[in-house]
Amino acid sequence: MEMSGSVPGKGTIMAKLHKHLSPVTLTRIQEAIPLSGRINFYERDFLYILTSVVTGEEKSRKEFKNGEIAFMPAGCMICFFLQDTRSYKPMNPLGEVQEGMNVLESCKRGDVLQIERIVSLSG
Questions:
Q1: What CATH number should be reported for the domain holding residue 41?
Q2: DSSP-assigned letter for residue 73
Q3: Which of 20, 21, 23, 107 could tie 93 with a disulfide, CB 3.0–4.6 Å?
């Protein structure tokens, strides 16, 4: 699956999502598209947006690499990792950023991240 999003005035983001990692979580996120939220940071380890998506833990883990995307059920947040991180809370892995890490790295608290679409890749 492919996700596209943008930060107005900064650029676009493309990500590859893997349904097998967290199928229920990804389905719930897809149903909530389009999503938009103000960016916050956890230190400079990852940035996140709050969502209305509610789901439980699913194949969750606590270690993520730079560029990975995960969903934190405890806070209903979609998280984009800016560096290799060990989280205090378990998160459901979703995929990784393919293009636009520079856009995410240039973001400031309060910028808006819009997730416009998630599409299945044929083949």
A1: 2.40.100.20
A2: T
A3: 21
